[in-house]
Design goal:
2 domains; 18 helices; Glycosyltransferase; 26% strand; binds 5-hydroxymethyl-3,4-dihydroxypiperidine; 30 strands; Beta-galactosidase, Chain A, domain 5; alpha+beta; 688 residues; 9-stranded antiparallel β-sheet
Amino acid sequence: MKTLLTKKGWNQNDIIQDGNSFLVANGHLGYRGTLEEYGADQLVGLNLGGVYDRSGNQWREPIVMPNPFLLLVEADGKPIQVFKEKARHHEISLTDDGVFHRRTEFKDIMIESERTASHADDRLVLERFRLIAKKRLAITVLMGMDPEIAELAGPHFKSAEYSIQDNRIRFAGETNEGKKLFESAVYECAENLESVGKTRLKLSKIVEKGEILTISVTSLISETEPFDPVANRFEESLQASRLAFEKKLAAADIGLRGDAAAEADLRYSIYQSLILGDRERTRCISGRGLSGQTYKGAVFWDTEIFLLPFFTLVDPRVARNLILYRVKTLSGAMAKAEGLGYKGAFYAWESQDDGSEQCSKYNVTDPETGEPVRTYFGEKQIHISADIPYAIEKYIEQTGDKSILDEGAREVIEECARFFMSRAELGEDGLYHLNDVIGPDEYHEGVDDNAFTAYMAEETLRFALNRTNDEDLRQEIARYLDHWYLPKPNADGVIEQFKGYFAKKDSTIEELRSSLHHPNEYWGGENGVATPTKIIKQADVIALMALLPHRFSIETQMANYEYYAPQTEHGSSLSDSMYAIVGARIGKTKEAYEHFRKTASIDIRGASKQFAGGVYIGGTHPAANAGTVLAVTQGFLGLQMHGGEITVDPKIPKQIKSIRLRYVAGNSIKEATIDRDGIKTIKEVAHD
Ligand code: IFM
């Protein structure tokens, strides 16, 4: 067992970030990296993925369940908590078996705990708490389910019933939308536990010096019936989870010989990505994973562009589920297109369980006045309907698994193509244009001929042409493809991000930052400081080149990289990995390495924007974490995969001597060692 991340010392200001950094999750449930004495104010969260609810007229968001791991210790009548007594030593860590650890030494007591969201049974969260007395003490431990839930747009339970019996606390709740949820936690301890009200158990004991009190909590969250966890199974459940996670990690391991620090951050990013994969359910990964309710727990293009390629490489069953989620939500996408007067499928920019658009018209507020700011992400970020077919095709190309087409993916591609054809406008030049859109750079809204959108939509048309069995559709697509407008490189080789971009005001990121009235001010939209300028939020033309390298020569990629790099704020966590990929490809390995280190450490150091205007956007960053892996595979290795076979074109930064890469090919896990000259060895390390 190896440590993935450790932090020593306790600091009040780090509570929220530690909650993100030390998250445990299993694709279904996430438990933030908080301490047992914390409550709602410290954003304790047992986050349940895939179940959403609306409270009043607020945003619909995912549910947070009552916290089953509240443990409050008193020794000789004095509370033993990090807030109340300075710890002599405090350390939290995550290990590569998916377990969170805490060790806090107070003057008279040592506290140790371990916690995980089970990877063997994803309805379970597990916690073991140990208290070691350093002298004779009168101890009380009050433990149980904390009904105080930290919510962004709650409350979500219109009814909440708690009951207690035989060291077991049960919760049955009904959400405002009428969903019934059950939680049952069994508290196990060698000592007698006394019930206190309906949500607490109490242990009282005189302990001798050196005596250890152990409390194990197994909590089961169920959406259908009031299942109970089985008592005396804690240790077995913990071991099963450890083994299951170690197995997942074994297929996803990457080693960077010569660069231990970068390797550590990379392994942590792999952890943060893997804990979001769900092999069992047709469910998607939200923009902030299972770290909380930010962004309404909604699914963005982040899934298709960052997470899907990651899972295609290391756990294709999860990748398949991510695609099937888009199949399942196709009707929502078709309803959205129809509502806006278009044909086909316009996927939700922010998608939840049914695929309807959850992106608010006012996604941002003014941080000074609290006034809502009109944004058009949901209406105009149409590239989402191209990102999905792109990811499906990549999945098929890499795995060779075409069966997904007959499970609905073909229809997704066809309907996305129909959408683009109905959305396109025939210009005076006789070509079809996509006007009034938003590209990945969200600061410039309502632009015409965004290059990213135009090329990606054209790829969708090509995919549909190739995949459809509908002859009429094929002919229609062929006609559109013959007249599809694509922005081309200018005399300097640079592609204009959108029509009129080159005429925008020159500025610098520093200049814009110093012109802000409020540090959290939103830079884009109607009145944003970036709007009249060339400054962009994130990789846009560079994202296009990262995704479609075969369409642009290395010289063109180089010219665009040079041009757009100084204009890019990297105000989105999605940006750095794109620059790392293209940077490496064009031989700028020093810069690529810097972008890679930035994206790899985003959830370790918490160096990301916490607010968009007045709206909280903190949490973990799945796209950046999966993007870290893509920076290595697509960037440093120039990896291509066809039906499980890999080829490489390495551009490895000088810090790294060679790269050891694990990946799934068919039923086996392979390991390749690659250096600057190419693949040195490939061997099968496990068979499914
Ligand atoms: O999908 C991204 C978008 O590109 C930038 N804002 C945040 C979203 C969720 O990560």
